[in-house]
Amino acid sequence: MTIKHSELTFQLMVESVPNAILLLNRDGKIVYINNQAEKLFKYERTELIGQVVEELLPHRYRKNHPTFRNSFFLSPKVRPMGAGRDLFGLKKDGTEFPIEIGLNPVVTADGTLVLASIIDITERKKAEQRFRLVVESAPNAMVLVNSEGTIALVNTQTEKLFGYEREELIGAKLEILLPERFREAHPDRRNQFFLSPTVRSMGAGRDLFARKKTAPKFR
Questions:
Q1: For residues 157 and 140, is the Cβ–Cβ distance under 8 A?
Q2: Helix (H, G, I), strand (E, B) or coil at 130
Q3: What gap in Å lies between CA 164 and CA 133, rounded to an integer?
Q4: Which residue range is the domain that position 149 belongs to?
């Protein structure tokens, strides 16, 4: 396969994907973008080729971004960008929007490049906000827990019931809200639920207890 044929194959592949694609060199300069990236950021292709990728970031992120970029090239591997952080892009008209970015190193004759796959998650963020509003408006205490038992979301009623501030609970294990005598066995029961998650009452036929921050238990 010739180099020109390989380049054509790459371009056809990149242009056929539904995500915005940027190809960047070690200096952060854009060497290729696909049609979806033009549509997403509202730029013509010719306006971005040769520009640094920081042009597509809100101004508050531009100063620190080269450091993150350099760290990627020190150990290039497939990974999401900014795991655990909110990321934003900047359109040509100055509009900010939330994004997810996947990074993938590409080895070429000119050295290692990074292929950034970008997804606009505006609608997802709106849905998450609607969900949070529903949870917050509920008259009962509500706790959202992931499969590892880490608390991801609580509402105001939970704060009032257990006596914790929201920041104290987010990221903590659910067992913090249980009397100590139940904590050791609870992860096994939680894991059983996630093996076959269904809508059901917890602990049917058993007395259940919780523990407030100030130590007294309640049913």
A1: yes
A2: helix
A3: 20
A4: 138-195
Contact (CB, 8 A) for 23 and 106: yes
Dihedral pair phi/psi, residue 4, rounded to 5°: -65, -40
Residue 113 lies in a domain: yes
Burial category of 115 from C-beta neighbours within 10 Å (exposed 0-12, middle 13-18, buried 19 and up): middle
CB crowding 127-157: b at 16 or more within 10 Å, else e: eeeeeeeebeeeeebebebeeebebebbbeb
Output the domain CATH number for residue 161. 3.30.450.20
Asked if residue 205 belongs to a domain, the reply is: no
Per the CB < 8 A criterion, the answer to whether 153 and 146 are in contact is: no
132 occurs within a structural domain? no
Contact between 136 and 156 under an 8 Å Cβ cutoff? The reply is yes
Interval 111-169: pLDDT, tens: 899 999 999 999 999 999 999 999 999 999 999 999 999 999 999 999 999 999 999 99
Length of the chain: 219
Burial class of residue 64, CB neighbours in 10 A (0-12, 13-18, 19+): exposed
β-strand pairing of 210-211 with 217-218 = antiparallel
Backbone angles phi, psi at 88, to 5 degrees: -135, 145
| In-domain check, residue 165 | yes
